Amino acid sequence: xxxxxxxxxxxxxxxxxxxxxxxxxxxxxxxxxxxxxxxxxxxxxxxxxxxxxxxxxxxxxxxxxxxxxxxxxxxxxxxxxxxxxxxxxxxxxxxxxxxxxxxxxxxxxxxxxxxxxxxxxxxxxxxxxxxxxxxxxxxxxxxxxxxxxxxxxxxxxxxxxxxxxxxxxxxxxxxxxxxxxxxxxxxxxxxxxxxxxxxxxxxxxxxxxxxxxxxxxxxxxxxxxxxxxxxxxxxxxxxxxxxxxxxxxxxxxxxxxxxxxxxxxxxxxxxxxxxxxxxxxxxxxxxxxxxxxxxxxxxxxxxxxxxxxxxxxxxxxxxxxxxxxxxxxxxxxxxxxxxxxxxxxxxxxxxxxxxxxxxxxxxxxxx
Amino acid sequence: xxxxxxxxxxxxxxxxxxxxxxxxxxxxxxxxxxxxxxxxxxxxxxxxxxxxxxxxxxxxxxxxxxxxxxxxxxxxxxxxxxxxxxxxxxxxxxxxxxxxxxxxxxxxxxxxxxxxxxxxxxxxxxxxxxxxxxxxxxxxxxxxxxxxxxxxxxxxxxxxxxxxxxxxxxxxxxxxxxxxxxxxxxxxxxxxxxxxxxxxxxxxxxxxxxxxxxxxxxxxxxxxxxxxxxxxxxxxxxxxxxxxxxxxxxxxxxx
Lengths: 367, 255
What we know:
The structure holds two protein chains of two kinds. Chain A has two domains: 3-227, no CATH class; 238-361, no CATH class. Chain A has an eight-stranded mixed beta sheet with strand order 3-2-8-9-10-11-1-12, with helices on both faces. Chain A has a four-stranded antiparallel beta sheet with strand order 7-6-14-13, with no helix packed on it. Chain A has helices spanning 10-17, 77-81, 116-129, 137-145, 162-165, 197-204, 217-227, 238-244, 250-257, 263-267, 312-331, 341-344, 352-361; strands at residues 3-6, 23-30, 33-38, 49-54, 57-62, 85-94, 97-101, 109-114, 147-151, 177-184, 187-194, 209-210, 274-280, 286-292, 302-303, 306-307. By secondary structure, chain A is α+β, with helices and mostly antiparallel strands. Chain B has two domains: 2-149, NADH:ubiquinone oxidoreductase-like, 20kDa subunit (Rossmann fold), CATH 3.40.50; 161-254, no CATH class. Helices cover 40% and strands 11% of the residues of chain B. Chains A and B meet through strand 5, helix 9, helix 10 and strand 13 of A and helix 2, helix 6, helix 7, helix 8 and helix 10 of B.
């Protein structure tokens, strides 16, 4: 029988997740969007908001009194598991030599409010950062400790296309807890299901009540989200179609619209490229700092003599064909989870699905 | 390292950024000998210098000669700020009739000797490093000074403001609020300051190394900005920076 947490007891969930010194990160309404930030009390959560998304446009508008009414903001699990800026180590002078010190202990996290596509993105990041031969210690230490609390989507945004990427909208695996938010004549509650031992232990400590009629709440909401999803990427043969189009005319055209700002790669939950720089302070102590970088930056491919992808068309092509085609060769999967963040958060409103389709079907340029 | 700080046509704000380093400045002073810095000290050592920071643009015949001498006496020459790197806001004169303006503005115009243009230092002498900003960012300035001191390349990215804005977890003002922003075409370095306060970027740091200004104009237009508004936004502190100037001219000619 389904078990649910009455919404009036939501604080108990935050408290339990935050027990043993964990930082609970959840959806918070800030500056016109839902972002993922530390939350201690229920009032900090983005309750009562709904997101409207379109290419290049995001608006937070008042909605039902749902706690998880807004689907996706510009941030993703990447923001917390693979931070935008990270000190790898510090080095200080020690006579004629130097000694290094390790960075501070990474935070123990509980990520609350993740969607099916977010869990899929974590699976992809696992593959890249843990499973491709070289483990990334910074990611590994955060990933090992994190609790993942997912929420079943009850609707889709205009920019969502997870169904076509086979990553959602059902939250089907990879979570410690799955929540399904139900508001009906019986009240407002979160159906709670555990997906791991850690999840079961947490659920056991929560003041849950039996709700016999909610057994299919998650699948019902997933079906509604799926039915409401109009966007889809035609993935069949996409890798081959894109790689056949490398010399197509489309790249020059999209480069007239692309700002080259790198916003898409920053909000993408699977883009993993970083740059490393050594910085010194006035005393000669040094830090090695890693930050998110982007294939849209010319400095990203800077070698002796200049960048290898000097033209914006070449950089756009790299981003799209890596994400959707050569990821398959490199990691055995597409690099896209269909969350639509790149499309919503592109100031120029460039739509990944439309561009992929256009590029893959454009006639080849005659040389 | 013997350091000099020179002023040309400018507001002194970038030199004040040097003094604004405060705590770090004390540590730097231990490693650096400030030999010439009239804004801060009455010591006026005549050079040569290991490193010269140059603020301001070239607007007079006298300054055009003086920068040659500064270059001759400086092992490394670093320009700081929008005036030194792009001609500054005073480069608006490049678009107007300087003689007519001089006659209108000054009671005794014959006392004012000026060139018809305001130009960047790099238009006159070879420059080893250009630090952008109006004013320059104190952390970036420290980074450049430390890089010079430790003989390494300054870690100053030439990417867009958007990269910093997104890394900082700020919400894009254009996407979430429809506010036009110059960030996508502007070089990072300020820490995406204005978008952090819910305003669009003003382009203080000049064009990034890969701006697509025409595409950005279309984004502004899509959010309701007319051509005059976009031209005015491009024609500020970095009006003479090639990418901003070219786009402003393209919009004006299109009219």
